[in-house]
Amino acid sequence: MKIHIEDSSTTAEIKEKFSTFYPFLKLEFYTKAHKDNEGSKREDLIAGIKEIKDIRTVHNEGDFIITPSSTVTEVEQGFETLFGVHVQVFRKSGRLWLETTATDSWSLKEQNEVGMDMES
């Protein structure tokens, strides 16, 4: 999967593209980074639709390639390093969305499969 990021990209567009490939996972954007294996603070959540230019610190334009074997850590760190945005991956668990903090080393494929299993 390839997500093109530029200043005019919106959080909603990026979330939708990600969820198209991983329907049992979702991305949330935050104003601050979180530490490894820790969750993000609710008050740092960026709600609503924002243009990336308004929430990032690195103004690179480009394609972010995410594969099924990419780990949650790689995805979260990639967004931060390449584009200066802070994201957290969540996994569906029944009706809830759980932060993947304890399983950040799992691949997106594994995370999505667990989410799918929890749905049934």
Rounded mean pLDDT score:
94
The helix tally amounts to 3
Classify the secondary structure makeup into a structural class. alpha+beta
Low-confidence stretches: none
Helix content: 25-40%
- Strand order in the largest sheet: 2-4-5
Short note summarizing the structure:
The protein has 120 residues and is α+β, with helices and mostly antiparallel strands.
Question: Overview of this structure, please?
Answer:
This protein has 120 residues and is α+β, with helices and mostly antiparallel strands. The chain has one domain. The chain is 29% helix and 22% strand. The chain is built from three helices and five strands. The strands form two sheets. A three-stranded antiparallel sheet has the order 2-4-5. Strands 1-3 form a two-stranded antiparallel sheet. A hairpin with a 2-residue loop joins strand 4 and strand 5 (96-99). The radius of gyration is 13 Å and the shape is globular. The two termini are 26 Å apart. The model has no long low-confidence stretch (mean pLDDT 94).
